[in-house]
Amino acid sequence: MVELITVIAISGILLVGIGIYLVDTHRGWAKMLDWIHSDVITESIIARKTFDGTVRQSARFYTLVPGGEGVEVNYYTDPANNTALLPDLYATFYVSGNQLLVERGIRDPKTELQTEVLANNVTNYVFASESTAVKMSITLDDGKHKMTTACSAVLHN
How many separate helices (H) and strands (E) can be counted in the chain? Predict the structure, then answer.
């Protein structure tokens, strides 16, 4: 009888331990899935990829918006087949309120063609440059998730 009680007690302890492990693992997966599928992650990736792709195709002409509020880069319609001395298009990355925006348009005369919202809930941002590299750092915080993304791209054309 003592052996049976011992086996039942050991089995109970093992089952409780396995149950706690499974519940903890499930909570971790649920938390990770919630984090991965949050708007903060999605918008951070979109902002980084858009900034990186636009700056990498840009000519070596850029302007920091006064006060570090944004950065403007210039690029050609067709970088592979351009004959113009100066780029014909521009893209300006800037923060307005709590949104990161990119404005695209014709450079001369300056004509806005489209403005796109890349990210919401921007709480902190920095635009900077060094030599031929342009940098952007943004912090997104929706109250539940917070993420800081920093990216730097070299102007190539």
Answer: 2, 8
Contact 104, 91 (CB under 8 A): yes
pTM comes to 0.75
Own/partner long-range contacts of 72-80 (Cβ < 8 Å, ≥24 apart): 73/134, 73/155, 74/107, 75/157, 76/157, 79/157
pLDDT in tens, 69-85: 889 888 877 766 666 67
Q: Are 142 and 38 in contact (CB under 8 A)?
A: yes
Residue 91, helix vs strand vs coil: strand
Which helix (H) or strand (E) segment is 20 a member of? helix 2-36
